[in-house]
TrEMBL record, chain A:
Organism this protein belongs to: Chrysemys picta bellii
Subcellular location: Endoplasmic reticulum membrane; Membrane
Domain of life: Eukaryota
Biological processes per GO annotation: fatty acid elongation; sphingolipid biosynthetic process; very long-chain fatty acid biosynthetic process
Lineage per the UniProt record: Eukaryota, Metazoa, Chordata, Craniata, Vertebrata
Reactions catalysed, as given in the entry: (3R)-hydroxyhexadecanoyl-CoA = (2E)-hexadecenoyl-CoA + H2O; a very-long-chain (3R)-3-hydroxyacyl-CoA = a very-long-chain (2E)-enoyl-CoA + H2O
Protein name: Very-long-chain (3R)-3-hydroxyacyl-CoA dehydratase
Any GO molecular function: very-long-chain (3R)-3-hydroxyacyl-CoA dehydratase activity
Automatic annotation (TrEMBL), chain B:
Lineage, broadest ranks: Eukaryota, Metazoa, Chordata, Craniata, Vertebrata
Keyword Nucleus (UniProt): no
Stated name of the protein: Very-long-chain enoyl-CoA reductase
Gene: LOC101945886
Keyword annotations from UniProtKB, A to Z: Acetylation, Endoplasmic reticulum, Fatty acid biosynthesis, Fatty acid metabolism, Lipid biosynthesis, Lipid metabolism, Membrane, NADP, Oxidoreductase, Phosphoprotein, Transmembrane, Transmembrane helix
Family, per entry: Belongs to the steroid 5-alpha reductase family.
Length: 219, 312
C-alpha cells in the first residue's frame, strides 16, 4: 500500500510523535477507512460464499472448500493491523493485537490448511461462521467509528453477539485442533527429532496440546 | 555559619490518599533523604528504607538518598510523599540467585540425573569430548559471574522489586535447563566441522570472557572511591578495554560474543536462540545506557555506538 507507506515513513521515524497526537491524521484516517471497508467486503464475500455453497450442496458439511481462498486472504490480511498499532494510527496495544491476529493466522494456516484431513470437519464451519459474523460487525464498526457516524445497531451487535460468537469460535477452534492431533502424530507434521546436527527437537503434537491448554486462561 | 540553626519540619503523606503518615520535627537542615528514610522506618518498621519511594510530588521521581533537605525546593515545613515499592531484594542476592541456578541446573543434565533422560541413560557420560568442554565453559561463565558479583560489581541502586526475580529466574533457569538438555543428551551430535570448529569456538570464548571481565574491572574502578556519580569509562592499558573506543557497553559486546562462541562450540539451536534473545536484551540495555551518557555529557565520544562498533 503505497499511500500509507509515504505517510507511514514519516510516522515510523517519529512513532512517538504520532502517539502523542490525538488519533490518526487525515491521510491515516482515509487509509483506515479504506482498509476497514475492504475487510468488511471481504468477510461479506466469505459469508455469501458459505450461504451459496450451503444452498447448492443442500447440506452444511464440507463448506470449507468454497471459501478457502478468501478466508486465507482476508484473515492473513489482518496482519496489517499489527502494523497499524506499531505505527500508532490505531490506539491499541501492539502485543495484544499481535497475539489475537497470530492466533487466527495460526488456526488458518498451521492447523486447517496444514492438516487436510480436518477440512471436512464440522468444527471448521463452526469457527468460520463465528469469525465471519464477528469480523463483518467489527470492521463495519471501525468504518463507521472513523466516519464518526456509528449506528447503534452495529455497536449493540458488537457488544452483544460476542456472547454467542466467542464461545462458538473457541469451540470450533478447539475441536478442530483436537481433530488434527492424530494426523499430526501419524505424519510427524512440523516435527523434528533427535539425533540431528542442529541438536534440536520439536514435537508439533505436544505443541498443539499446549496451545489447547493455553485457551484456558482466556476464560 | 550562623549561630542559630533553623530546624525543618517534615511531613510525609501517602502519595495516593494524601493522608499524613508521619510528622518529623526538629530535622537538621543538612539531613539527607537517607536520614529521613531511616526516621520514617522507625515509625513504620515494615517499610525498610529500600522500599520507600520519597518524592516531592505525589507522582514525581523518587528522591535519591544523597539529596540534602535544605537544598530541596521546600520551605522549612517540607511536604514529602511516600510510595511503597513493595518487597525489595538486593542486587547481590538477585545476581547470586540468577547465576547459581543455571550453574547447578546444567550439572543435573551433565551428570544425567535419572529423572532427566530416563533410567536407561542415568548417570552415564557422553563419549564426545566437546560435551565435557561445554560443561567446563558453561560453568566457568557462571562461576566467573558469581565471583564478579561478590568482588567486582559496584551497584548504583541498592535493590530491585522481588517480583522481578521470580520472572528472571524462570527465564534464566528455564533456558539453562533447555540448552543443557540438548547438549548433554545421549543423542547429541557434535559440530559438523569437528575439532576446527570447536577450537575456534574455544579461543573466541576465552577472548570474550577475558574481555568481559576486563570491562567489569574497568567499570568498577570508576567507582573505587565509593561514589555513585556516573563517569565516562575510557580505554586503559589493557587491550581488551580498547573496545571502549568503539562502543559504550563493551561488556555486553563481549557477553554476546561469548554466547555466540558457545553456540558455535555446541552447534545447538536452543543455545543459538538464547544467544539471540540475549543479544536483543543487551542491545536494549546498551542503547539505554548510551543515550543516558550522551544526554549527560556534552563531550561524550562521538565515534562510540551502543553495542556493535559502527553499526548498532
Amino acid at each position: 500500500m503505497a499511500a500509507p507507506g509515504s505517510g507511514g515513513a514519516g510516522r515510523a521515524e517519529n512513532g512517538y510523535g504520532s502517539q502523542r497526537r490525538k488519533g490518526p491524521g487525515a491521510l491515516a484516517t482515509t487509509y483506515l477507512v479504506i482498509y476497514n471497508v475492504v475487510m468488511t467486503a471481504g468477510w461479506l464475500v466469505i459469508a455469501v460464499g458459505i450461504v451459496r455453497a450451503y444452498l447448492t450442496k443442500g447440506s452444511y458439511h464440507s463448506l470449507y472448500y468454497s471459501i478457502e481462498k478468501p478466508l486465507k486472504f482476508f484473515q492473513t490480511g489482518a496482519l496489517l493491523e499489527i502494523l497499524h498499532c506499531a505505527f500508532g494510527i490505531v490506539p491499541s496495544s501492539v502485543v495484544l493485537t499481535a497475539f489475537q491476529v497470530m492466533s487466527r493466522v495460526f488456526l488458518t494456516w498451521a492447523v486447517t490448511h496444514s492438516v487436510k484431513e480436518v477440512q471436512n470437519e464440522d468444527s471448521v464451519l463452526l469457527f468460520v461462521v463465528a469469525w465471519t459474523i464477528t469480523e463483518i460487525i467489527r470492521y463495519s464498526f471501525y468504518t463507521f467509528s472513523l466516519l464518526n457516524h456509528l449506528p447503534y445497531l452495529i455497536k449493540w451487535a458488537r457488544y452483544t453477539l460476542f456472547i454467542v460468537l466467542y464461545p462458538m469460535g473457541v469451540s470450533g477452534e478447539l475441536l478442530t485442533i483436537y481433530a488434527a492431533l492424530p494426523f499430526v502424530r501419524q505424519a510427524g507434521l512440523y516435527s523434528i527429532s533427535l539425533p540431528n546436527k542442529y541438536n534440536f527437537s520439536f514435537d508439533y503434537y505436544t505443541f498443539l496440546i499446549l496451545v489447547m491448554i493455553s485457551y484456558i486462561p482466556t476464560f | 555559619m550562623g549561630s542559630r540553626v533553623t530546624f525543618f519540619e517534615v511531613e510525609i503523606l501517602d502519595w495516593k490518599t494524601k493522608q499524613q503518615l508521619c510528622f518529623l520535627d526538629k530535622v537538621e537542615p543538612h539531613a539527607t533523604i537517607s536520614d529521613i528514610r531511616l526516621m520514617f522506618h522507625k515509625s513504620y518498621p515494615q517499610w525498610y528504607p529500600a522500599r520507600q519511594s520519597i518524592r516531592l510530588d505525589p507522582k514525581g521521581k523518587s528522591l535519591r538518598d544523597e539529596e540534602i533537605l535544605q537544598h530541596l525546593p521546600v520551605g522549612t515545613t517540607a511536604t514529602l510523599y511516600f510510595k511503597d515499592l513493595g518487597p525489595q531484594i538486593g542486587w547481590t542476592m538477585v545476581f547470586l540467585t540468577e547465576y547459581a541456578g543455571p550453574l547447578f541446573i546444567y550439572f543435573l543434565f551433565y551428570f544425567r540425573m535419572p529423572f532427566v533422560y530416563g533410567l536407561d541413560d542415568k548417570l552415564t557420560s557422553s563419549p564426545h569430548p566437546v560435551v565435557n568442554l561445554a560443561c567446563i565453559c558453561h560453568s566457568f561463565h557462571y562461576i566467573k559471574r558469581l565471583i564478579e558479583t561478590i568482588f567486582v560489581h559496584r551497584f548504583s541502586h541498592g535493590t530491585m522489586p522481588l517480583r522481578s526475580i521470580i520472572k528472571n529466574c524462570f527465564y534464566y533457569w528455564g533456558f539453562a535447563a533447555w540448552l543443557a538438555y540438548y547438549i548433554n543428551h545421549p543423542l547429541y551430535t557434535p559440530p559438523s566441522y569437528g575439532q576446527k570448529q570447536i577450537n575456534f569456538a574455544v579461543i573466541m570464548f576465552l577472548i570474550c570472557e577475558a574481555g568481559n571481565f576486563s570491562i567489569h574491572v574497568a567499570l568498577s574502578d570508576l567507582r573505587r572511591d565509593g561514589s555513585k556519580i556516573r563517569k565516562i569509562p575510557y580505554p586503559t592499558k589493557n587491550p581488551f578495554t580498547w573496545l571502549f573506543f568503539f562502543v559504550t557497553c563493551p561488556n555486553y559486546t563481549y557477553e554476546v560474543g561469548a554466547w555466540i562462541s558457545f553456540t558455535i562450540m555446541t552447534q545447538c539451536v536452543p543455545v543459538g536462540l538464547f544467544t539471540f534473545l540475549c543479544f536483543i536484551q543487551m542491545t536494549v540495555w546498551a542503547k539505554d545506557k548510551h543515550y543516558t551518557y550522551v544526554r549527560e555529557f556534552k563531550d561524550y565520544p562521538s565515534l562510540r555506538m551502543p553495542i556493535i562498533p559502527f553499526l548498532l
